[in-house]
Amino acid sequence: MAARGIPPEYVDGYEELLADISRSGRALRRDEREARRELGERAADSGYGLRELVDAYLGATRRSWSTLPGVADARSAADLRHVGESVLAAVEAGVAALAEGHERSHRLAVRKEEAARREFVDDLLYGRSDPGRLAERAERFGLRLAGRHVVAVATGPEAYDDAHPLVHRVERDLAGRFGDHDVLLATKGGRFVCIAPAAEQAVLDAFVKLAGEVRVALGRPHGGPGGVVRSYEEALSALDLGERLGLEARVLNSADLLVFPVLMRDRAAMADLVRAVLGPLEEARGGALPLLQTLGAYAAAGYVGAEAARRLDLSVRALSYRLERIAALTGFDPDDALQRYTLETAALGARLLDWPQRPL
């Protein structure tokens, strides 16, 4: 009879096995160990814990001990010790086999869950599934897609996967502070992704803070499964723009960068603007790049000459000379409010088009 709710079939044949071992003194055979592994795996699949299973086997050992033939027939303390060693070795091997089978079932279940989670994340971020079905699957992973969500994407010098220490630390801290309902953390393409309700700004702020010194981009809030895809794509676009434009900010909000997709919507027109306004800079000694970098630093410094010179590691006089050369070659004066807007727009377009490194 099994103990603590374990059905008898999981212990069937065990007491007979101990009786045979007590008589012969043999070890547990390979097929007998494998049979116990299979029982352990079946018990785990049926929802029985390993502790319950081990208790059932130890209880059966204790109950049958005095009736084991080898114990009953022992003529001396030495005989009893020999029988005891054989039986206890068999118990140890049998319980170890049960545990192996139980763990094997759990590993398989974890792998299946991980595979299902990865498939869901792929479908969610790429919009490859029916929205209604996707919303149903999302609830299994603690995410309700009816509301508006924001996607934050962190990227660092090394690729992130599910086993990365940063991923574990952020998951643990966010779950401890906010719980894991309606927040999904995942890794995708070497990046660390957080999907959170737009109303839970504290979660997003905590994710940004816990990510450390790596760059984080946030999409805009959007509703439904399609909104998650859109917010994710906006975050990826913000990361790409940050790299192409050499932006220094660690946190990039896609809402702050909306002007750039507008500028690039007509690529041919932008290329024409760059050629017309900045093309003459290629005639300068050293080419266009140093003067283009000067324009960028001047704009980033709020058109304050001393700050721009510091950023470029130049003297104020050298900066003034470069600005004069830009005005002379292009016909646009960086210190004229209207003309500087044309120069700055063209300079941004040049960075987006990777000019002058890449010919237009």
Automatic annotation (TrEMBL):
Belongs to the CdaR family. Gene3D superfamilies: PucR C-terminal helix-turn-helix domain (1.10.10.2840). Residues 291-346 form the PucR C-terminal helix-turn-helix domain. Residues 127-241 form the CdaR GGDEF-like domain. It comes from Streptomyces fildesensis. It holds the Pfam family HTH_30. This is PucR family transcriptional regulator.
